[in-house]
Specification:
By secondary structure, this protein is mainly β. It is built from six helices and 39 strands. A hairpin with a 5-residue loop joins strand 31 and strand 32.
């Protein structure tokens, strides 16, 4: 047995053992948690679960959508690591017609890493408003360059049209939305090509837009993965088969923070902000102001390496506090193979919590925000460790899929190895996961009853979330390696109410990203915030969604904009897409 084969074998054995141990520990912890709840010590929540409520239901409408796309990763005999990592999705309204459009990233030929045929093009599909989509890639100028990975959507120049930043192995692109249905590549002019000093072009997986200095301009954080070159990369074998190498064999690379100068250009402030000194193996990022100090903080999901929680100091610098905060490692003290992440308030206590997808044998952590800068991994008492320890997932999102007032969990599942059945004796393609929030920080696996789209296994990767038909129900689009994507339309039938808040910043950034929204009804209070950085290398609807349960009327909506302006709306009707323009003063 050679060294690489032995290493992979030991990793798999450890993962299997960890999975079994996780399940035993999780069962004990969950039993204790349930006993505590029965004794009345569980936290009371204003949006409690409703007994006998109808199942969450989705319908995969890809066949009727006219979306003709397949994500091509160019599987090679050598199994280069980049092949298993691509697959971003963005849901954004590129033409301001009120309908979310869909953008997919795509791979390239190997070893050239160029889009040598149309089969490798990135794709933009315009929403026709009738359940179908039209491919407008050519006219829009969005075919792309190189081996693409992820995508981030945001209006960086505040002109009212959402722009795209596409990450990749050998090319990153900033694509300016011209407002006439076309985009222009302004990467060189803007200075955001993804170059790292002394390393050159980094392998960028994900990116996200946020206004870290509250100057009304969206800044760009680019998440880089491994110091990896296919020309010199080692090739790994396991059980006599080629295998994607573990990231532990490679060094990580610094991430990049680009500050928006307001004139179409950006300045690399990675060193000055201290971002560059925290070198990891990043795969996902999410934003939230976890300590409510008025500045957006960053969670970075690292692969087989400690996670980072970058606290925004408010002076242009960030401090890494992940270990002190309790989110660097899971509740068992282990670094996980972190992939996707979302950063939202799961228990309606006003403090954003962190969810992270990971690899087989690890379980998917939920880090509950305890306040005071502290988090606790509650995935076992929440019932998730036992349910997820035999899964691997990539994309994820925390959204209220049944509008009952509690954010649920979605996971885009698939093994990493395309030959996992031969090497690890487990399936490669997996069905997606859906975990319904009971309203008491515990979750019920409802995947098996959520529709046929949740029963079909596939090599799922990135996932994006938004209301594609403006019916108040959050839909999901999932990219799939070497196959058609999933277009999961939310068909949940109940009488629960909802509201979608479309923000228009004036002093703040035009998209309103970073705005904190609090909704109060007769049933209680909920919290959310505006962000497009969700899951794994994907970008979701910038509108802020709330399920309202049986409340047909909203007593108050309070908005705290990044500018510091506080705005309050009273007596708001439910079941509408509500546009809110930032007030001139509090």
């Amino acid at each position: 047995m050679d060294r690489n084969t032995r290493r992979v074998f030991l990793q798999q054995a450890a993962a299997f053992a960890a999975s079994a141990a996780f399940e035993r520990k999780a069962s004990a912890l969950e039993a204790g948690w349930q006993a505590s709840r029965q004794r009345g010590r569980a936290v009371a929540h204003v949006a409690a679960a409703i007994p006998g409520k109808l199942d969450i239901q989705f319908e995969d409408r890809i066949g009727a959508s006219r979306i003709n796309f397949a994500l091509r990763n160019s599987v090679s005999p050598q199994r280069f690591t980049i092949e298993t990592m691509t697959g971003g999705v963005a849901l954004f309204d590129y033409n301001n017609d009120g309908l979310l459009d869909i953008f997919f990233t795509n791979g390239a030929a190997i070893p050239s890493l160029e889009k040598s045929s149309a089969a490798y093009n990135n794709r933009l599909f315009r929403n026709n408003g009738d359940g179908t989509f039209t491919d407008v890639t050519e006219r829009a100028g969005l075919k792309g360059l190189g081996y693409s990975m992820g995508v981030a959507a945001g209006d960086y120049d505040n002109d009212g049209f959402v722009d795209l930043y596409v990450t990749g192995v050998n090319h990153n692109q900033l694509l300016h939305n011209n407002g006439d249905g076309t985009f222009t590549d302004v990467t060189a002019k803007a200075g955001v090509g993804g170059m790292v000093p002394k390393l050159g072009k980094a392998w960028s997986v994900a990116a996200g837009w946020f206004d870290y200095n509250n100057d009304g301009l969206l800044d760009l954080l680019v998440i880089n993965y491994l110091n990896y070159d296919i020309a010199s990369a080692v090739h790994c074998m396991s059980a006599g088969y080629p295998a994607y190498c573990s990231p532990v064999q490679f060094l990580g690379t610094p991430n990049i923070l680009y500050r928006n100068n307001g004139d179409g250009t950006f300045t690399d402030v990675s060193e000055a902000s201290h971002i560059a000194q925290y070198i990891g193996k990043g795969m996902g990022l999410s934003f939230a102001d976890y300590d409510n100090d008025g500045y957006m903080d960053v969670f970075i999901s690292n692969d087989t390496f400690q996670n980072y929680l970058l606290h925004n100091n408010g002076d242009g610098t960030f401090s890494e506090v992940g270990v002190l905060a309790g989110v660097a490692y899971n509740g068992f003290g282990n670094a996980v193979a972190g992939m996707g992440t979302d950063f939202r308030d799961l228990d309606n206590d006003g403090k954003p919590d962190i969810f992270q997808t990971a690899m087989f044998g690890e379980g998917f952590p939920i880090y509950k925000n305890l306040g005071g800068g502290q988090f606790q991994d509650v995935s076992s008492p929440a019932g998730l460790t036992a349910k997820t320890s035999r899964l691997t997932a990539w994309g994820t999102g925390l959204f209220d899929f049944d509008n009952d007032g509690n954010k649920d969990l979605f996971t885009a599942n698939s093994d990493i190895l395309d030959n996992a059945p031969e090497i690890a004796h487990r399936p490669y393609g997996l069905p997606n996961g859906l975990f319904r929030n009971r309203g008491d920080m515990t979750f019920e696996d409802v995947s098996q009853t959520a529709g046929a789209g949740f029963l079909a296994p596939a090599a799922h990767r990135g996932a994006a979330f938004g209301d594609l038909n403006n019916d108040g129900k959050i839909d999901v689009v999932v990219n799939v390696l070497n196959g058609p994507p999933k277009l999961l339309m939310n068909r949940t039938e109940n009488s629960d109410h909802w509201i979608l808040v479309h923000l228009v910043g004036v002093k703040s950034n035009r998209d309103g990203l970073g705005t904190k929204v609090k909704v109060t009804t007769a049933r209680g209070t909920q919290h959310n915030h505006a962000t497009t950085a969700v899951g794994y290398n994907s970008s979701s609807d910038k509108r802020v969604h709330f399920g309202l349960g049986d409340a047909a009327h909203i007593d108050e909506i309070e908005l705290r904009w990044p500018s510091g302006i506080r705005q309050v709306l009273k007596n708001v009707k439910a079941d509408q897409v509500l546009t809110v323009t930032e007030a001139t003063s509090s």
